[in-house]
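Give me a protein, keeping tokens residue-aligned:
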Amino acid sequence: MLLFLIFESGDFPDKLIDEIKEAAGKDNQIPPNPRYLKPLVETFMGKWADYRDGTDKYGETYDWFYRNLQNSDETISLRPFLDLIREAITDYFRPPEDDFPKPVLSARYFAKPRARVKAVKGHFEDLASEEGNRDLEKIFDYIQNKLSLSSRKSYLSKREFETLIQGVIKTYENELEYKTIDGLKDLLVVNGIILPIYKPGGYTAYSFAYLYKYYLGLSNKRR
């Protein structure tokens, strides 16, 4: 079906389409090669990821998915992607419906903050329900409901991070399994939520995975 859409779009040369068909083989399984996958993504979801006006402001859609859905260790979890597409499709069928056929599911649906929040919600709930991960619920609750907006940053200095974790411990001390900064830090690192960044001179910073930016309401600003 996607190969038919690529052909009908008229955006790609016949030679490339023939290459994709040959690479897919009889079982129609396209190899994970950007040369073959990018035309599929662009045909179905558009070339650019700017959900407002289709500009190149947020880069190409193909790269946007990888950048926005990765954990702090640069791995990709499948559930957020599937939930994001499910929410985008649901939004697509809300009136008024589109009256143009391409791209089939544009960035106006999958790149909206609302869709991105819902995409992470189910994934995080699964993660927090695993044995030994219950403290994640308290950390996220603290950030979403107790932390000031000015302190919700995706990039934190060591002092800012430790202040955040101390706030979690003080607020939920009787409910936590891990009651130390190192214990909660390791929990976040192991689950791909934060990435420690070590720099010369013993300086350490912490970066939240971009996957959680909208779910936690984090700002990209570094103070």
User: Anything to note?
Assistant: Residues 113-129 form the longest helix (17 residues).
